[in-house]
Design brief:
Structural class: mainly beta
Number of helices: 3
Shape: elongated
Largest sheet: 10 strands, antiparallel
Order of helices and strands: HEEEEEEHEEEEEEHEEEEEEEEEEEE
Strand content: 35-45%
Helix content: under 10%
């Protein structure tokens, strides 16, 4: 610290001290013990924030802050300074008050917001955007100047152009009506919808139906009252006369020379039996499907045993056909068969299967070259017997 009371009692030393105090603005952490009006004092109490003070004859007045590391000085706002660091200023920044006794930098957008001008990036005198408030002193702005040419219109009316003349207000429409162009003059009134929240009328191509409740499989059908409605598939089948079940029956459909009296498809359970004593066998596969067309039934079956019941006796058969075989003398419908785990007698190599008349059963026989066909008896079966069968028979 270099300070002095500026009183020269002796020349030696005190002159040098006084000059150093003047040269350093009396730099020190405390004010000079003797102060004179107009004297400067540099308070270095806080590092990098030295305060320059001025004595007005009565009090020390703070003029600003000196950062000796950044070599910068901020003049206090009380004495006309802005107190902000302008080193980070960019093009378009504004100096604005912070509300805390200092000033700061703000972008143009923020400054416009502070001024209540909105967030527009540019504002030209010949292109002013008015987003609020009111414009007074202008009456019936002409069409040529971008106005309507009229001072008032009927509430709810539609406006149409009239060349360079004022816009014309069309009458307010009734509920559900719309204006459409006739290609010549002003739009015309069309009663197109049932209501403003309703449906397009059928007279104009609408279905007049609320599809909000539609579910998978629904059909759109006429109601006979000038509107359409939703019906389930079952109801539509009844209307079409093809039955009301999920598998409709087509009765009496004329197909030229043939009569399609019935159509049906589904599943059946093929079951191996002994014709004398059925037995109860165990299966890992036991699947059957059928399709009936008229008086013909087409079948498929797949069987795989895991255990054959030794109590079964007689010829081996397959029961469970979906429809009774035609009752006709000597009628035997033959099936195609693949098999395994069935022991045929010597001289036989083919397993035959024939639908037995007036039953719901297929009987198995063994066939061979130059030998008479014979029945497959239960002794030929095993715990691993397998049968795959496909064919058709008359009902």
């Amino acid at each position: 610290m270099t300070q002095s009371d500026m009183i020269i009692d002796t020349v030696a030393g005190q002159v040098e001290e006084a000059l150093q105090a003047l040269a350093s603005s009396s730099k020190g952490s405390t004010a000079p013990s003797t102060a004179y009006a107009g004297q400067l004092w540099l308070d270095d109490t806080t590092a990098n924030a030295w305060v320059l003070n001025f004595f007005d004859g009565a009090d020390w007045i703070s003029l600003g802050t000196l950062d000796d590391s950044a070599n910068s000085f901020l003049l206090k706002h009380e004495v006309g300074g802005l107190e902000f660091d302008a080193s980070g200023v960019v093009d378009g920044d504004f100096v604005v008050g912070t509300g805390t006794g200092t000033m700061g930098l703000q972008s143009g957008a923020n400054a416009r917001a502070k001024m209540g001008l909105g967030s527009m990036a540019s504002q030209a005198a010949d292109n002013v955007a008015i987003t609020g408030g009111a414009v007074s002193g202008i009456t019936d702005l002409s069409v040529a100047d971008g106005g309507t040419g009229a001072s008032s219109f009927t509430d709810g009316a539609f406006l149409v152009g009239s060349g360079s003349s004022a816009l014309t207000a069309l009458p307010v429409l009734a509920d559900g009506h719309i204006y459409v162009s006739d290609g010549v003059g002003d739009p015309v009134d069309m009663n197109a919808f049932s209501t403003s929240t309703g449906f397009l009328r059928h007279e104009h191509g609408g279905l007049e139906i609320n599809a909000g409740g539609v579910v998978d499989g629904d059909f759109v059908v006429g109601t006979g009252t000038g509107a359409m409605g939703l019906e389930s598939g079952a109801t539509v089948r009844t209307t079409m006369g093809v039955g009301s079940t999920d598998t409709p029956a087509f009765a009496g459909v004329n197909l030229g020379d043939d009569n399609l009296s019935n159509y049906k498809e589904g599943t059946w359970t093929p079951t191996l039996i002994g014709l004398a004593v059925n037995g109860t066998h165990t299966y890992s596969v036991q699947v059957g499907r059928y399709t009936r067309i008229g008086n013909r039934c087409f079948i498929d079956a797949a069987i795989q045993l895991t255990a054959w019941d030794g109590s079964a006796t007689g010829q081996v058969g397959l029961s469970g056909l979906p429809f009774t075989v035609l009752n006709s003398t000597n009628y035997l419908a033959t099936m195609a068969v693949a098999f395994g785990g069935i022991n045929l007698n010597t001289g036989y190599g083919v397993l035959g299967a024939m639908a037995t008349t007036n039953t719901t059963r297929i009987d198995f026989v063994e066939c061979g070259d130059n030998v008479a066909a014979g029945p497959i008896l239960v002794a030929a079966m095993s715990n691993s017997s397998m049968v795959r069968l496909s064919g058709s028979y008359e009902i």
